[in-house]
Amino acid sequence: MLVYTKIKSVEQKIKSLKKEASIGFVPTMGALHQGHISLIDIAKKENDFVVASIFVNPTQFDNLEDLTNYPKTIDKDLTLLKSSKCDLVFMPIAEGIYNNNVQSQHFDFDGLEFEMEGKFRKGHFNGVGTIVKRLFEIVKPNKAYFGEKDFQQLQIIRKLVDKYKIPIEIIGCEIFREKDGLAMSSRNSRLTKEQRNAAPFIYNTLKQAKVKFGTKNALEIKKWVEDEFKKQPLLTLEYFEIAEEETLQSIKKHDLNKKHRAFIAVFADKIRLIDNISL
Ligand code: AMP
């Protein structure tokens, strides 16, 4: 497995491969777990050569404490990637990626950026758009793989390639979960034992919301979820929304012609966890 930190090295390697090999790309922020590896595995099946990037992108954090505390496990990450048969790992430094100007570009994602995560993490999607666009310019993959765990991000990346006519196919990959249903996340490693024991409540609530979606309207379900979280001493609900998948607009009524999804963000003390479920 090749490990590169320099943009030029990646560009040269990709240039030498591009004519005869298809390239799959999995961008990550490291602290890797099986959820990330599931993306690498799918990319490996569909491409000749798989590139993963590890870069904790400062411009997508609105909270300095969250950025500082973001877990870093580089040695373990490289071991995991090697055993997953990733071909190249790109680990750039911020100054190189941002040309010494670590700032976000401003994007118009047709309103997707103002819903849910966009309301609670100011500037987050400008940061995501900036880094993903830049990484796409360097890696120039045929296909790029993103988890449905960050469903809003996935839809925003689809919008990004559409708006900027970037010739990359975006593949959404299912959420990889722990046995008890908790969505795998780099942030899970920061949970205390008690918080970790409480955290499966998030997915259990989503599953129950899905059942209720057959008989109750979105506002009733939202109220039920809010009441359930009030009974949970270790978990604080930040938002729960039922939204249409394409526009991410919250819905009031069930429209049988559209796909819907329930989205949730929860705090365990200062650790923020997100999840979603197709309805
Ligand atoms: P991150 O390192 O958190 O930025 O995640 C990198 C990529 O892995 C993103 O496309 C995430 O959506 C995806 N990902 C993270 N956790 C999971 C999971 N549990 N299942 C599937 N994909 C995931």
Protein model, in words:
With 279 residues, the chain is of the alpha/beta class. It folds into 2 domains: 2-173, HUPs (Rossmann fold), CATH 3.40.50.620; 186-278, Pantoate--beta-alanine Ligase, Chain: A,domain 2. It has helices spanning 7-17, 34-46, 64-69, 74-83, 94-97, 117-120, 124-139, 151-163, 193-198, 201-212, 218-230; strands at 2-4, 23-28, 49-54, 88-90, 143-147, 169-173, 236-244, 260-268, 271-278. The radius of gyration is 19 Å and the shape is globular. The N and C termini lie far apart (40 Å). The mean pLDDT is 96. Adenosine monophosphate (AMP) is lined by residues 28-29, 35-36, 38-39, 146-147, 149-150, 173, 175-176, 183-186.
Task: Supply the key terms.
three-stranded antiparallel β-sheet, 279 residues, binds adenosine monophosphate, alpha/beta, Pantoate--beta-alanine Ligase, Chain: A,domain 2, Rossmann fold
Helix percent band:
25-40%
Distance between the termini: 40 Å
The count of strands amounts to 9
Shape from CA axes? globular
Radius of gyration (CA) equals 19 Å
Please count the helical segments: 11
The low-confidence parts are: none
User: Could you name the CATH class of the largest domain?
Assistant: Alpha Beta
Major β-sheet strand ordering: 1-4-3-2-5-6
Q: What is the H/E string?
A: EHEHEHHEHHHEHEHHHEEE
Question: In CATH terms, what is the architecture of the largest domain?
Answer: 3-Layer(aba) Sandwich
Fourth-tier CATH superfamily name of the largest domain:
HUPs
Beta-strand percent range: 15-25%
CATH topology of the largest domain: Rossmann fold
Please, what is the average pLDDT?
96
Structural class: alpha/beta
Can you tell me the number of structural domains? 2
The main β sheet shows up as: 6 strands, parallel
